[in-house]
Design brief:
- There is one protein chain.
- This protein is mostly helical and 154 residues long.
- It has one domain.
- Helices cover 68% and strands 0% of the residues.
- It has eight helices and no strands.
- Pfam families: DoxX.
- It comes from Sphingomonas rhizophila.
């Protein structure tokens, strides 16, 4: 027997996956703009180039932007999940193993939301999905699939 309780929500699952990705990307993007662009300015703004915090800020800025639009979502989410795991164990965990004590809740949540996006995909409201639909619509005679691109390059 089907479970009618909450079944209505199944109809909106794909759209809410996109909403989860978009909101998470916006929150993550602000960490990058804060570090790299100084907006909003925090104690971590403007780290010296090529330091650990600068690299993290660049990942947050570029990765957050790509995830916001859902472009290259799965590989970007995988990379950002790893960044957050490293951030937790290098920055937060030395103070305490417990996130509530070491203030690492955001790193843990970002890590697992990004990991979820790796497996669930970006949702229907994404550039990745639009490109996938275009490839399906073009079929085997599409520009890339037909070999025309290779022939055009000669």
């Amino acid at each position: 027997m089907d479970n009618p309780i909450g079944a209505w929500a199944d109809d909106y699952r794909p759209q809410f996956l996109s909403i989860l990705r978009i909101v998470t990307a916006l929150l993550f993007l602000v960490h990058g703009t804060s570090k790299i662009l100084g907006w909003p300015e925090t104690s971590m703004s403007f780290p010296p180039p090529w330091t650990l915090f600068w690299i993290a800020g660049m990942l947050e800025l570029v990765g957050g932007f790509l995830l916001l639009f859902g472009l290259l979502s799965r590989p970007v989410a995988f990379l950002l999940s790893g960044e957050m795991a490293i951030a937790y164990w290098m920055i937060h965990a030395p103070d305490s193993i417990f996130p509530v004590i070491n203030r690492g809740e955001a790193a843990v949540l970002f890590c697992f939301v990004f990991l979820y996006i790796v497996f669930a995909g970006p949702g229907p409201w994404s550039v990745d999905e639009a490109l996938r639909r275009k490839r399906i619509a073009d079929g085997p005679d599409g520009y890339y699939e037909s070999g025309r691109m290779i022939a055009d390059e000669r």
